[in-house]
Amino acid sequence: MKGIITALITPFNEDGTINEEGLREVVRYNLDVMKVNGLYVGGSTSESFLMDEESKRQLFKIVKDEIDVDTKLIAQIGALNIEEAVRLGKEAKELGYDALSAITPYYYKFSFQEIKAYYKRLTDDTDHPMIIYSNPAFTGAQFSVEDYGELLALPNVIGVKYTDTDLAKLGNLKESHPEKVFFSGADEMLLPFAISGADGAIGSTYNLLGEDARTIYEAVQKSDLETARRVQSHMNKVIDFLLEGGVYSSIKYVFKQKGIDAGYMKFPFRELTDEEKKNADNILEIIEK
Amino acid sequence: MKGIITALITPFNEDGTINEEGLREVVRYNLDVMKVNGLYVGGSTSESFLMDEESKRQLFKIVKDEIDVDTKLIAQIGALNIEEAVRLGKEAKELGYDALSAITPYYYKFSFQEIKAYYKRLTDDTDHPMIIYSNPAFTGAQFSVEDYGELLALPNVIGVKYTDTDLAKLGNLKESHPEKVFFSGADEMLLPFAISGADGAIGSTYNLLGEDARTIYEAVQKSDLETARRVQSHMNKVIDFLLEGGVYSSIKYVFKQKGIDAGYMKFPFRELTDEEKKNADNILEIIEK
Amino acid sequence: MKGIITALITPFNEDGTINEEGLREVVRYNLDVMKVNGLYVGGSTSESFLMDEESKRQLFKIVKDEIDVDTKLIAQIGALNIEEAVRLGKEAKELGYDALSAITPYYYKFSFQEIKAYYKRLTDDTDHPMIIYSNPAFTGAQFSVEDYGELLALPNVIGVKYTDTDLAKLGNLKESHPEKVFFSGADEMLLPFAISGADGAIGSTYNLLGEDARTIYEAVQKSDLETARRVQSHMNKVIDFLLEGGVYSSIKYVFKQKGIDAGYMKFPFRELTDEEKKNADNILEIIEK
Amino acid sequence: MKGIITALITPFNEDGTINEEGLREVVRYNLDVMKVNGLYVGGSTSESFLMDEESKRQLFKIVKDEIDVDTKLIAQIGALNIEEAVRLGKEAKELGYDALSAITPYYYKFSFQEIKAYYKRLTDDTDHPMIIYSNPAFTGAQFSVEDYGELLALPNVIGVKYTDTDLAKLGNLKESHPEKVFFSGADEMLLPFAISGADGAIGSTYNLLGEDARTIYEAVQKSDLETARRVQSHMNKVIDFLLEGGVYSSIKYVFKQKGIDAGYMKFPFRELTDEEKKNADNILEIIEK
Questions:
Q1: CA–CA separation, A246 and D182 (whole Å)
Q2: For an engineered disulfide with C45, which of A74, B33, B68, C7 has Cβ 3.0 to 4.6 Å away?
């Protein structure tokens, strides 16, 4: 499992239920136009932590139903309620998802031993490939190289979605665990991540910038740094605009401009204001330049 | 609503379900021995964020069923899924809970306007007294005096569970909003909180130290600082021990020593180690001194 | 040594040298009008960390020269260059300062053992009473109760200027070291500090609010909580205004309105803007109410 | 000005004065063996913030005296006392240093406008090329792209020593200011920095790893990623060891093993313990592999 994987946005109806047609369109856009290597479903970008369990199951099903045979699918199943996480993991496995992923448990300040026990139980009970989802800015859980080593030694754990900026640690991890996969979670640093040993990248902006991301990733394989730098610079101009009004809501807005019904945000996330929409009107133009 | 309110621990069975008998014993202990003024049910201390919705409903029901007429009951209903929070709020209201409370939405970095919209919807849909649960160390959401003012102006919002140490801000809030209630969330600072204008305190250690807490609170009303100081000092010796192995698990351990079946922790929280138990063996002795 | 001690501001000339006349006036105001129990000279409030060694010596001399026999004097001598700190300490001792104080060494992330060695050498070489100046928000150095215990065990160390908000820790420290002195460094929390065991308070706002501070401190001794609360509330209204444009520059501005030449800020600190001055015009009125 | 620049360590005598012979040896080693492109003198690595002004002047003089014509020299002159900083800047300019550099003023929480005024005055008064030294982990001063733009627009400001890990921001800065120079301050991320647009790197580990650093930097110019990755990995193994006992003291220890008298640390920095020395004994072996 490698390459560019989109952290899928979820189009919602105004009442907070999933907009199935919109979701199918967004999936198709990712596959047919962005041509990304896979989809990461049910993560932060999917606004999954705001959804109920039934909606998460529905999300997994619709995406799987729409998907092509050769697209890799990862289901993010992490939840504070371990029983829910296990049920979701079994469901995703049965649906044919290639791998599971789980955010480190959050809110409470769990010790590393508690976090490790959480992954042990999740992987024992689901018995399916697992990608640790490490996002210290959101969860506060920061791991040392040794901590990562303990997690990677658990049966079924195949890698890490590494949403951090310490590339020396990433390089160290890849070198110590060459058989595991490490995905960048910092889209605006895809190039330095690829250079530093990342096997690929999972990110929200690839909903709109997946093609650019593939170009960077392939350029690095061919040591074509000039191309990689030029395209990363282009990506980052877009990302700067996306950040201004909020990445997820801005992506949805740009999708709508393209005629794709990316739906509403899940409450309490808000939609773009009129002023933010005006700012976001620049994005489409830059993307297509 | 004022005075000492215990943030109730939840005894679990080994499989993560609620240990109903144990729960009833813990409630009775709080009412009959600690004689606290109220119970805060379903908060951090109840390990509620790790429970499924059905268990939370069960928790609300059992506690209500066990309770006396004159004990105030607050149901913490906050959840990242707004629909679940609303359902829980309606249930607690129907059960006869005196007030609701909700943690500020966490994990994502919501803007203040989004957080305000969250409380607006919760209070509109449940139409029952609401206590904002502010715990910046766990959620990252830090409010200014002006922010609090906006939240307190929402219909049904009656006060704040203020789990922070900025007592100047607390004093300012109480003075600007004398008709609202403000509860200390820092048990080891109950005395300075009471001095600074808190109407009462909500805390986990009152499961074991509720009597001490009432003594401090009443001593402050009578300007008996010597007593207040002496008892706070006693409380803090116990709290230091509770912190060493984890407050919730240590409280459960001490309950068991008292013959009250406080049950297991909810996974992934772990139980005390043997060494931590040895340390916790001191607690009971200090409490009863 | 106890009671209310003003952290003295330093009036500067426009070229960054000390405005001696202004300094003498500010000292007199503190003694004659505020009637504080002592002065803390050369700390953060004195903008001392921006001054050269010669100016610091001059500051110590002028203040000593202006002072009355019964006013306690503390010289803050901490400096990253240990030799400078020792020289300043010897000078202040010779001038007749009652005690020395030193900020924990900053900029670099020193280990606790290095910090302890720093105080050991300072106290050995100056052989004069020393008050640890702990200000984690400025220095990053955060101490446990055990760490404080080690520092307080050094010969000549007589106490701590505790610029933090953890009152449980303060209470614990005072109880474990009743013979040492602990000063509040959080002016807006003077009342809860006094309740929690502080022997006094050292703060910048006492340049203007020293009288209020004494009232609070004395009211707590007499268990007159109503007075203490009322005056703390008054103080905090002023402090909120002082914070808006910067505490030190706002204090100087108010002094000037009173006809006392409190001089310029030391570069790169800036003066109040016109708008900030308009806001600060309210302060004098509130103070004198 | 570009390429690999060593942040020079300072050998001290046991009494805290500069060990001139040792300093000359360390300089020669950097020039003759490491063959770095320049030296950064008087920065954090030089323990400069612990030195008095006279020692800093002496440091600048000795290094200049020992240096070859074609080695670039940068003098870090930043000090909280602006007059000292200006004097040091004039001295370094007169001595023939190619550029000045200054840490952002620290300890106090200066506003951006105050920091900008600081650089304006420094550059006006010294009239010599200036490199902003940005190290938010040590100073707390974090700049946006717009802030950097304002600083870079000041006359004489030629670039930034960027000790941070946000490579997207670095790339953005280089693209917006192609005529300015940006130096990596994160030795263990030299490769991703070089890829992301850094003109060079300034770091402490280049005292021992300057040759490796040059190899990486040159490999990136030639798009030879394989070499760059391999050498960065080698560097990072050494850096991990250096971090264990403290980078500066470990570098000095390794120098001594090589027969170069790198002297003592400046108080209150401590020397390696015996155990740390045993660990550091591995470093030389890895370096020379």
A1: 29
A2: C7
Token digits of residue C3: 């009671």
- Rounded to 5 degrees, what angle do the CA atoms A140, A144, A150 make? 105
Asked if the model's pLDDT at residue C1 lies above 90, the reply is no
Is the pLDDT at B172 greater than 90, yes or no? yes
Alpha-carbon distances of A281 from A232, A254, A275, rounded to whole Å: 21, 8, 10
End-to-end CA distance of chain D: 31
Grouping H, G, I as helix, E, B as strand and the rest as coil, residue C133 is strand
Looking at every residue in chain D, the average pLDDT score rounds to: 96
Q: What is the pLDDT of residue C68?
A: 74
For residue D103, which of D134, D73, D128 has the smallest C-alpha distance? D134
Residue C140: its pLDDT value, please? Answer: 92
Yes or no: say if B114 and B80 are a contact pair by the CB < 8 Å rule: no
Among the options C56, C72, C93, C161, which is catalytic?
Answer: C161
Mean pLDDT of all residues in B157-175 = 96
Chain C CA closest to residue B145: C240
Q: Is A45 annotated as a binding residue?
A: yes
Q: Which residues of A touch D197 (CB under 8 A)?
A: 229
The whole-chain average pLDDT of chain A stands at: 96
Residue B68 has pLDDT above 80, yes or no: no
Cα four-point dihedral sign A8, A13, A19, A22? negative
Cα within 13 Å of Cα(D33), Cβ side: 14
B104 annotated as a binding-site residue:
no
pLDDT of residue A68: 74
Question: Could C267 and D111 be called an inter-chain contact, meaning their C-beta atoms sit closer than 8 Å?
Answer: no
Q: What residues contact A266, with CB distance under 8 A and at least 6 apart?
A: A10, A12, A16, A47, A50, A51
- The CA distance from B50 to A108, in Å, is 9
| D17 to B33, C86, C118, C162, D49: CA distances (angstroms) | 68, 16, 17, 34, 14
Strand partners, A102: A132
> What domains, with CATH codes, occur in chain C?
3-222 (3.20.20.70)
Identify whether the C-beta of residue B254 lies closer than 8 Å to the C-beta of residue B208: yes
> Which of B218, B279, B219 is closest to B245 using CA atoms?
B279
C88 and C116 Cβ atoms separated by less than 8 Å: no
Residues making up chain D, counted from first to last? 289
Question: How confident is the model over A231-254, as a mean pLDDT?
Answer: 96
Query: Measured between alpha carbons, how far is B261 from B256 in angstroms, rounded to an integer?
Result: 5
Can you tell me the distance from the alpha carbon of A265 to that of A252, in angstroms, rounded to the nearest whole number?
8
Q: Say whether C225 sits in a helix, a strand or coil.
A: helix
ipTM exceeds 0.90, yes or no: yes
pLDDT at res. D70 = 84
Least CB–CB distance from C223: residue in B186, B192, B223: B223
Note whether B113 contacts A270, CB cutoff 8 Å. yes
Q: Which residues pair with B141 in a beta bridge?
A: none
Render pLDDT for C139-196 as a digit per residue (tens, 0 to 9): 999 999 999 999 999 999 999 999 999 999 999 999 999 999 999 999 999 999 999 9
Tell how strand C3-7 and strand C200-203 pair up: parallel
* Distance to chain B for C183, nearest Cα, Å: 16
Task: Find the chain D residues whose C-beta atoms sit closer than 8 A to any C-beta of C.
Answer: 16, 44, 49-52, 80-84, 105-111, 113-115, 117-118, 121, 138-139, 267-270
Please report which confidence band the pLDDT of residue A70 belongs to, taking 50, 70 and 90 as the band edges: confident
Between strands D130-134 and B157-162, the pairing is unpaired
Note the pLDDT of residue B84.
98
